[in-house]
Automatic annotation (TrEMBL), chain A:
It comes from the Bacteria. GO terms for cellular component: plasma membrane. Gene3D superfamilies: P-loop containing nucleotide triphosphate hydrolases. This is Nickel import system ATP-binding protein NikD. It is a peripheral membrane protein. Pfam families: ABC_tran, oligo_HPY.
From TrEMBL, chain B:
Residues 2-215 form the ABC transporter domain. This is Peptide/nickel transport system ATP-binding protein. GO terms for biological process: transmembrane transport. GO terms for molecular function: ATP binding; ATP hydrolysis activity. It comes from Nonomuraea dietziae. Gene3D superfamilies: P-loop containing nucleotide triphosphate hydrolases. The keyword ATP-binding applies. Belongs to the ABC transporter superfamily.
Length: 308, 216
């Protein structure tokens, strides 16, 4: 099992504008591996996940390829194939907002059991729930009676009901406390060790680094840097990655000046240039992705030694 | 001093907090950490007078609170501001960001375009962004507007309930810097609620770590 994404581009037509949410994204994740896609809110990372699952709204235009196990292109597969063969069975989605993902009028147990039955699974609801740190009695609660963390754990259990080989976790840890973040990440890691492929989408660089083998950093609809997690954190080469690392509360805790461009008005050249200290005339052209970084002036080791 | 003494509060008959006491001195940042579901947000609601506790006492600079929500006297109600984790559910989707920021002074019968502009600038919102509505901006941009809104009435205490949990590190660092600058300018007390130990260690002057309350 391997997911291989090439040139994935997604745009939305809205009155008077085009939103370019994902531009030319290429990456792969194979069984036993965890890839984390890191980026801030509004950079297009959730749209990317939804494109893979065929869950985009009707005004989306998608191009590129996303081959699952070298045999099925998720981007051109029919809705029937995605619903009947892919979602829940080959790809599990751990959603971003469990509170709105769960049906408010049914208990957690009813929803988990429905998923198990629909997918023809032999596992029990209690067994799945336990794996995510839920007591059996928590399953008898309605979504509004669950804390954010508990609702997330219910959603995690539902995503695993069909025993999918690829898990896409869209902000699986937002709203969880650190121990639970760590536990969720440990569970994702475990699922990965079991031979599943895991794609984690998150704004939390620290959580990403904890679980992922590789990180891909997304900025203003494009992947700007990708590489082994530890290397990327210790020696970021794209100035945006370096800024995100420096903004961590256990580092300099300093914000990157300015804000990202609107996805309706992306510049021709490097989208980070207006916020970048290393900008030159060359940055008016879009930099190509080369040896894991998309920047005309990637930071070198020497720059890190000076604390850049 | 913003003070909670022996507070018990909850929903229905289940107490979420029992016998909780906490003090936020002016000019200080108190961190409150603890696991998801331990009652941190319930305490935030009690301290911002949004929820009446079943027992216990809240006082703001010595004034004991006896009425809650819209019945609380305006002077007390506006001296504590609350920032929520989810900016999207904390705003009226029909308003522009500028209207959202201007809402508290408008509700108090004041028009304050220059205050709104300066706070908006401080949180990094400028020009075109202020004319947008919530669905046209990112979570980070919306939370910036919510922070500016919280500061319009110059609260003496600010409660940040997981203010940056949804946000990337850079936006988090920016918003915390804005809160620190406001505090330096006005001497406000801040209660920073977060499950992120690393963040509280960096941000707060002192941190209280809760363990789970008995019901959850």
């Amino acid at each position: 099992m391997k997911l291989e994404v090439t040139g994935l581009t997604v745009s939305f037509s809205i009155p008077g504008a085009t939103v370019r949410a994902v531009t030319d994204a290429s990456f792969s994740v194979r069984r036993g591996e965890c890839l984390a896609l890191v980026g801030e809110s509004g950079c297009g990372k959730s749209v990317l996940a939804h494109a893979l699952l065929g869950l985009l709204p009707g005004n989306a235009r998608v191009s590129g390829q996303a081959m699952l196990s070298s045999e099925l292109d998720l981007l051109s597969a029919s809705p029937a194939v995605l619903a009947g063969r892919v979602r829940g069975r080959q790809i599990g989605l751990i959603p971003q907002s469990p509170a709105t993902h769960l049906t408010p009028v049914r208990t957690a147990r009813a929803q988990l059991e429905e998923a198990l039955e629909e997918l023809g699974s032999t596992r029990s609801a209690a067994e799945l729930a336990e794996r995510f740190g839920l007591a059996p009695r928590d399953l008898d609660r309605y979504p509004h009676e669950l804390s954010g963390g508990m609702a997330q754990r219910v959603a995690n259990a539902i995503a695993l009901a069909g025993d999918p080989e690829l898990l896409i976790a869209d902000e699986p840890t937002s709203g969880l406390d650190r121990p639970l973040v760590e536990r969720t990440m440990a569970v994702l890691r475990e699922l990965c060790e079991e031979g599943r492929a895991v794609l984690v989408i998150t704004h939390d660089l620290r959580a990403a680094a904890q679980v992922a083998d590789r990180l891909a950093v997304m900025y203003a609809s494009r992947l700007v840097e990708a590489g082994p997690a530890a290397e990327l954190l210790d020696r970021p080469r794209h100035p945006y990655t370096a800024g995100l690392v420096a903004a961590q509360p256990d580092r300099e805790f300093v914000a990157i000046a300015g804000m990202p461009p609107e996805l309706t008005a992306l510049p021709e050249g490097c989208a980070f240039a207006p916020r970048c200290a290393h900008v030159t005339g060359a940055c008016a052209r879009q930099p190509a992705m080369s040896s894991g970084v998309s920047c005309h002036h990637p930071l070198r080791e020497a720059a890190h030694a000076q604390g850049a | 001093m913003l003070r909670a003494h022996d507070i018990t509060a909850g929903y229905g008959r289940r107490p979420v907090l029992s016998g909780v006491s906490l003090e936020v001195p002016p000019g200080r940042t108190v961190g409150l950490g603890g696991p998801s579901g331990c009652g941190k947000s319930t305490l935030a609601r009690v301290l911002s007078l949004m929820m009446r506790p079943t027992s216990g006492e809240v006082s703001i600079d010595g004034a004991v609170v006896s009425r809650w929500r819209q019945r609380a006297p305006r002077s007390l109600r506006t001296s504590v501001a609350l920032l929520y984790q989810q900016p999207r559910t904390a705003v009226d989707p029909r308003m522009t960001l500028r209207e959202i920021i201007a809402e508290p002074p408008a509700a108090a019968g004041r028009r304050s375009p220059s205050l709104v502009a300066s706070l908006a600038g401080e949180v990094g919102l400028t020009g075109d962004l202020l004319t947008r509505r919530p669905h046209e901006v990112s979570d980070g941009q919306l939370q910036r507007a919510c922070l500016a809104r919280a500061l319009t009435l110059e609260p003496r205490y600010l409660i940040c309930d997981e203010m940056t949990t949804m946000l990337d590190a850079s936006t988090q660092a920016h918003l915390v810097a804005v809160v620190l600058a406001y505090q330096a300018r006005t001497g406000a007390g801040v209660l920073a609620i977060s499950h992120d130990r690393v963040l509280l260690d960096r941000w707060a002057d002192s941190t209280i770590a809760w363990t789970a309350q008995p019901t959850v």
